[in-house]
Specification:
The protein is an alpha+beta fold. The chain has seven helices and two strands.
Length: 189
């Protein structure tokens, strides 16, 4: 398999040198919108999508590549711009990042649900995601993510309860066991 233009554009040696220089200069952010790993993540995603396209084109002859289109994807490490490959027949359905999919994986959704479960409002979650990852997510998108959990919460709330629940209540703060260190023992006469 021949390397494509995208694979030739990324130079790992240069990336490594730049990352080390940034770290020595005091930049400790690995993830986020300007993190050290953002170029590496972009290259890995581009290479994986290119591989998916190559396999698709080989299986569907006489179909062939038809360039690519830039797409902004939200990840747990910040936004990443990837090159989505296209084919002439428009039959390519990428598995890694699907058509009309704007978030990569469930990681971001799980973080949003975690923040929501801790009582944060949609506006607070928006501010948090903007500060940490540079992501602009609307309250509508946040609502759609949290609405995925509502059926599970309702199901849990309407579950049948057991007739009896046992529990143990410990009222004492501490229980002494054995002798205190340094205390003298009485000798029996």
């Amino acid at each position: 398999m021949e390397p494509t233009k995208q694979e030739e554009n990324f130079d790992y040696a240069t990336f490594r040198q730049q990352a080390i220089q940034r770290m020595l200069a005091g930049d400790k952010e690995l993830t986020g919108k300007d993190g050290l790993l953002a170029p590496l993540l972009k290259d890995l995603l581009d290479a994986a999508l290119s591989g998916e396209m190559q396999a698709h084109v080989e299986q569907n002859r006489p179909n062939r590549r038809n360039g690519s289109k830039a797409k902004q994807v939200k990840t747990a490490h910040g936004p990443v711009s990837v090159e989505m490959p296209r084919d002439r027949d428009s039959s390519f359905e990428p598995k890694l990042i699907g058509k009309r999919q704007t978030t990569l994986g469930e990681g971001l959704d799980n973080r949003i649900l975690s923040l929501y479960s801790k009582g944060m409002s949609y506006e607070d979650i928006q501010d948090h995601l903007q500060d940490l990852y540079g992501l602009d997510i609307s309250t509508g998108q946040l609502s759609a993510i949290t609405d995925k959990v509502l059926p599970l919460v309702e199901q849990w709330g309407s579950r049948p309860l057991e007739p009896v629940y046992t529990f143990v209540c410990r009222a004492a703060g501490a229980v002494r066991c054995g002798l205190l260190q340094g205390a003298s023992r009485r000798q029996s006469p």
